[in-house]
Amino acid sequence: MDVPEVYLVAPSKKNNNCNGEQIMSPILAEFIGTAILLLFGCGVVANVILNKTKGNSSGWIVITWGWGMGVFIAVFTMGQFSGAHINPAVTLGLATAGLFDWAMVVPYILAQVAGGFVGGFLTWLTYKDHFEATEDETTKLGVFSTIPEIRNYGSNFMTEVIGTFILIFGILYLASPGFIDVNGEFLSTITINGEEVGFGLGALSALPVALLVFGIGLALGGPTGYAINPARDLGPRIAHAVLPFSKKGSSDWAYSWVPIVAPSVGAVLAGLVYLLL
Question: Does 1 reside within a domain?
Answer without folding.
Answer: no
